[in-house]
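Encode chain A's predicted structure.
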Amino acid sequence: MIPFALFLWLGASRAPSSEPVLLRARWVIDVESGRAIEHGSIAVSGERIRAEPADNARTIDLGEATLLPGLIDAHVHLMLGGEPEANARATLLAGFTTVQDLGAVGDGNLELRDAIAAGRVLGPRVVASGPWLGISGGICDFQGIGVRGAEAFRERVREDVERGADLIKVCVSGWLEEAFRSPTRQEISVEELEAAIEEAHELGRRVAVHALSEAGIEAPVARGADLVVHGGFTPARTVERMKANGVRQLTTLWSLRQAGPESAFEALQSHLRSSMGLGLPLAFGTDAGVIPHGKNARELAELSALGMRPEDALRAVTLEASRAVGLEGQVGTLAPGAFADVIGVDGNPLEDLAALERVKFVMKGGRIVLGPDVK
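Encoded structure for chain A:
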C-alpha cells in the first residue's frame, strides 16, 4: 500500500492536467446503487470523467482509501464565519467540491464565485444567490437590505439577476422557536411572495426559501418555490406536493440544534422523522458560516440520528444535493461526462459516515488539490 504523504497543490490558477489519469483505490462508492466496488477505478481526462481510461493514462493508486464523488453542500454562506477566501479553501479541502451560497449582504458571494471559477482563489464550485431577499424589519433585513411591497420584491429580483445571481433566496418565516410556537406565522405577505417567485421564474432563476413554520413552508411550495432551505415543520399535504414537483428540503440540523430551546429541536427531529416516512425529499445543507466552514460533513451525523441509512445519507450529499443546486448529472456522480470531482477518504462511509470527515484526496474538475505525493 502506498502511504498517504499528503501535500497541498497551491497554485490556484493551475488548470486541470492535460495528462489522462486513472485513479485506483481499495473501494469506489457507486452512490446511485449504494454499494462499494472493491478495487475500483475512475478514468479522468481533462476536467471530466470518462468511461474508459486512455492508453496513456497515468495511474494514481490511493491504496486503502475509498473514492466517491465530491461532496455538495447546498446551503452555505462563504462570506460569514471568517475570511471568505479561507472559508472557500477550507470547504474544498474538506471534500466539498460544489456549494450553493444562499445569502450575503451585498454581491461578495457572486464575486467570490467568479474568482474561484477564474482560478484566482482556491475553492469549491459555487452557485450563488447574491443578497438575501426579505421584508424590511424582518429576519433577513441585514444592514437595511430588506424591502416592502410586491413591486419592490420584483425590482430586487430583477436587480439581483442583472448582477449575476444564479438563484434567488427569499426569507419567508422566522427561526426554529417561532416556527415551533407559532406554526401559522410567516413574515412575508402572499403578494410579496408571489411577486418574487413569478419574477424569478420569468427570468429563468430558481427560488430557495428560508422557511421553517408550517405556513411558511406551505405557502411558497404551493406557489412554485424550488427549494426549502432549512429543516422545518412541513405539513403532510406539502410533502406530497414537494414529491410531485421535485422540491427538496435542506436539513441544516447542526446549526438549528444551536438555534432554539431543546424542546423545539426535539420536536423538529420528530417531525422530520415522520416526514421522511412520507417520502420527504431531503438534500444536504449545513448553513455553514453559522457552523464552521470545513466541518460541513458533521451534518451527516444529524441525518443518521434521524434514522437515515448511510447509503441514503451519501445520496443526500451527492445526487440529491446536485439537484438542489441545479447541476444534476454534472456533479455528485462518477458517471462518464460528469465533472471529475472525486474525493478519497480514510474508511468506508457505507459502514461509518464519519469517514467523510477524514478526507485524504480531493480532485475538483480534474485538478488535484489534495492528495498523496505520487512519484
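The first helix runs from residue 84 to 93.
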